[in-house]
Amino acid sequence: MSELVEPIRILRLNQKTVIKYWLENETLCTLLHEKRIIIKDFLKNYALPLLAYYTNALKEQTFHVNKEFSNKLISFFLKKELKAGEVFTIYNEIKKALLEVLYINNIDSHKVFKRINFVFEKNISSILASYTINNTKTVKVNEDLALEHAKNIEIIDKNILLCKLDKDFKFTYVSSAYCDLSLYSKEELLGNMYDFLKFSKKEDSLYSKLIEELKKGKKHQTELKCRKKDGTYYYLNVYIVPLLDKEGTLLSYEIIEHDISLEKALEEQQEMFIEQSKSAAVGEMISMIAHQWRQPLQAISILIQKLPLTKMMDGQIPDDVLDQVVNDSNIQLEYMSKTIDDFRDFLKPNVKKEKISVKNLFLKAKDFLSYMLKIDSIDLIIHNENENAQMIIHVNEVVQVLINIIKNAQDALLENRKEHRKITLHSTVVNNHVIIKVEDNAGGIDAKVIKKIFDAYFSTKNNKNGTGLGLYMSKKIIEEHNKGHLKAYNHNEGVVFEIQLEESNN
Length: 506
Prior knowledge:
Layout: H1 5-13, H2 15-23, H3 26-34, H4 39-59, H5 67-79, H6 84-104, H7 110-138, H8 143-159, E1 161-166, E2 171-174, H9 176-182, H10 186-189, H11 204-215, E3 220-227, E4 233-244, E5 250-259, H12 261-314, H13 319-347, E6 354-357, H14 358-375, E7 378-384, E8 390-393, H15 395-415, E9 421-430, E10 433-440, H16 470-481, E11 485-491, E12 494-502
Parallel strand pairs: 7-9
Antiparallel strand pairs: 1-2, 1-5, 3-4, 4-5, 6-8, 9-10, 10-12, 11-12
């Protein structure tokens, strides 16, 4: 779960910010005040440990309820006479605060959000169930208690996707939330097999494997595509727990589920972005090959024309002239062949990361773009404070990012009709990170839109030839594939794109 490393680091560094967002909620503040809960003590003894609990739960492969801490929380809530709905509010607000802090730190991975929501729903269902039982034991049974108990059950029923199966995998219980999502009534679901909601025959093998795993009496977590009553579908993250008696005999199954339809939609959209970006990249490559080949093709054309011209003027073609034409033509053809090899290698996917120096990284990008920049009279200036600094990265992907940023600068320089056009590649090393800056003198980007340039389908190009995916995918490549950072800001005469990558000292 390497994609969770950075979110966990951010949450640990921003505990105070999470608490700040949490306590900004008016409902929560009013609740703490009404229950005479001293915020300072509550933060120290319960809020910060709860935050640490969520953070630790993110990195676990499976979910385990911390019974000791949960019991401590339940005892505190009971002492303060909180209702189940108020307990739900406290948990829900800290979850929202966690998501908010991750969002403002540019963590928008659906996998991360899915994990947080799963931890929340699994934990809150356990807490509320235990809270209801303990509340029943510690308060005198009367009409008020019966009403409160009913409310607690109702909160779980309306907010948590819960169901129970007998040992034959038939529904014996479904929550109202489960029915609201599937659009089936409880009567329509109870007694049916668990695979009643499968979307199509394609899921038969998946359900068969799931049942085989459950028969072993082990907990199981998976994702399922389900069909609603109206024929549409939704996705669930499913966590199933077999319930056994004291002798280990299987009695039934308890299932908590989380609706991940939005996350799946984002995942599908991401895949579409990647495919569109690849198509755009291939188009760019073909365009660059055409530019790179123009000069050697012109040279070969001139060399070939030299032969009949020499014969017309001298009556024959001397061997030395013929040899020169052949040799010079071969040089140009070898250059063209090398260009094809370079572009072919560039388009190969990077399965593994490679070690590369900043100097060689810049040279790779320059080799692709030098001729195009030359014909547009654009100076490419390279300045390395430590050209031997090395990184372990997906080389072709990072080169693609540099090419995309430089080509955007090229377009801006031409569009703004700058006379003295220049693009500067600059690198330095700060705190074990290689900082790469790509700066132009094209006049910069409007302050109103510079924050949007990394959004999908957003383009600043007036001719509308831009797909609006280049910078979006560049940010994904740097931050998700190479664990770096990419940002843009105006400086001096133009815009600066700053890439931060971890330095390799090995």
